Amino acid sequence: MAQAVPDEVMMNADLIKDLADVAKDKALRQGVLMRIQETPNSSELVTYAPFTLFPTPVPKAVFLQALQVQIHFNTLVDKISQDPDFLREALASTIAVDDFTARLFRIHEQILKEGRSQSIVLGLNRSDYMLDQKNGKSSLKQIEINTVAASFAGISSRMPDVHRHVLKVAGQLEQSQKILDNNAAVGLAMGIAKAWELYGSDRAVIMFLVEENQRNIFDQRFIENELWMRNIPTIRKQFDDVLKTGFLDQEKRLFVDDHEVAVVYFRNGYMPENYISEQRWDARLLLERSRAVKCPDISTHLAGTKKVQQVLARPGVLEKFFPDQPQIVEQIIATFTGLYTLDMGTEGDKTVAMALAAPDQFVLKPQREGGGNNIYGSGISQVLEDGKDGTERMAYILMDKLHPKPGKNYLLRRDAPLEITNCLSELGVFGAYVRQGEEMVMNKCVGHLLRTKCSEDSDGGVAAGVAVLDNPLLI
Ligand code: ADP
Ligand code: MG
Ligand code: MG
Fold first, then answer.
1. Rounded to 10 degrees, what is the CA torsion of 323, 325, 327, 328?
2. What's the gap in Å between 129 CA and the centre of ligand 3?
């Protein structure tokens, strides 16, 4: 079954219209909110965050598989972040041509040279998957792992009640009971709280480093509020605040606006556009050099690049990170799809030939985040043909295109028409871990996120305006 409700509900236009009104009001009541595009920095006018009218069926076994592998991805990301030789080798070709990754890498090298001033590491990541369909079977395949600014842990924690309610009103009580609770915001806050506690100063604050455009502020407020509930103070600051008022004392303690900062939680700084001036790079460096716990620190940020993902899929690489733990290696590898190098040389040449022969079977990915950056179909040929003898291709990796089973749903978006839509979904799983020196003091899978988009849109992202929030309905 590819839909949560029978056709008699799905196709009943009057009922759907009623249900959409019920759903929107429920979303507003639950706090499934976003500021409007016109005034992204004011809460005077807000709207519901876009979401599906109905939840989407997801096979239980595959869902559980995604939850179970998460702590291993946490461990893996953490191990990579502590392996400078691996990072240097994995990213060598990329940084030769991609200026953004090169700048991040330079900061990483500088920190290594100076020595890390903080042994506490906080990782909050989200591993994303599609359920690839082959021969009538769906298998869990990783799209990417986000180690910086992974969003929607907050708002998605309020989505279960929205869909439960809609299903009940639609007369589907039994289905409504198949929607799981989900509270990743609490889990992320627990990770932040742990890092704060280990930092060891009651006065010190958690600094959310935020963007100028704060449309998605409610998602972050869920986490802030969880921290305040534990009497842990949080502040919201931008790069410019850090530039104007930030400094390190003699012990490299970070101060911003006179607050000592225990944890910097990056919800900014992951795209080239976030660094519109050299000074912003200076601010990033200042934060990295500080004794504050960084979430993520620069090496964990780099561990989440698509190039690293591709290198991890090479034979024998995972085994190096998990010697004597073949069952973990197996669990992780099972989620990998085909990932191909575009480095110069015969292997990269082979990738180019393969992509040009069947561009529709692949996705070409640069080292970027936030949605809307991937290249598909004829775009792939364009990039690879133009750059065939040049080195620009090294900025990308090539990946098998996944084919999840489409399902029917209605995408609820402000001012968008209410129409039945062919949809694809992407499952995200949130991980949280804290390490102090050699010791992992926390390593957890803390929740999930289901996003759904129109099957004609190749790229994703809720903030990018393509995907909308959803819930898995376990079948
Ligand atoms: P970003 O870091 O910008 O989110 P992603 O790797 O998640 O980059 O790609 C963005 C979107 O593109 C995904 O949300 C998904 O919808 C689509 N996409 C990415 N990789 C694939 C793939 N291998 N097969 C099918 N769709 C993909
Ligand atoms: Mg990403
Ligand atoms: Mg993504």
1. -80
2. 9
Q: 409-427: buried (b, 16+ CB within 10 Å) or exposed (e) per residue?
A: bbbbeeeeebeebebbbbb
- With 0.90 as the threshold, say if the pTM is over it: yes
Instruction: Tell me, using a 6 A CB cutoff, whether residue 363 lines ligand 1.
Output: yes
pLDDT digits (tens, 9 = 90+) for 279-317: 999 999 999 999 999 999 999 999 999 999 999 999 999
Could you tell me where in the chain the CATH 3.30.1490.50 domains are found? Answer: 338-401
Q: Find the 146 Cα to ligand 3 centroid distance in Å.
A: 7
pLDDT (tens digit per residue) in 29-70 = 999 999 999 999 999 999 999 999 999 999 999 999 999 999
CA dihedral 54, 56, 60, 66 (to 10 degrees): -120
Whether residue 446 contacts residue 125, with contact meaning beta carbons closer than 8 Å, is answered with no
Evaluate the omega torsion of the peptide bond into residue 296 and state whether it is cis, within 30 degrees of 0.
Answer: yes
Nearest CA to ligand 1 atom 12: 459
Fold for the domain defined by 338-401: Dna Ligase; domain 1 (3.30.1490)
Burial of 260 (0-12, 13-18, 19+ CB in 10 A): middle
Do the annotations mark residue 371 as ligand-binding? yes
DSSP state of 318: H
What is the ipTM for the molecules in this complex? Answer: 0.99
Distance from the alpha carbon of residue 294 to the mean position of ligand 1, in angstroms: 26
Helix or strand holding residue 103 (H, E): helix 99-114
242 lines ligand 1 (CB under 6 A): no
Please indicate whether residue 128, judged by its CB atom, sits closer than 6 Å to ligand 1. yes
Ligand 1 atom closest to Cα of residue 372: 3
Report how far apart, in Å, the C-alpha atoms of 402 and of each of 17, 126, 140, 204, 449 are: 33, 19, 10, 45, 18
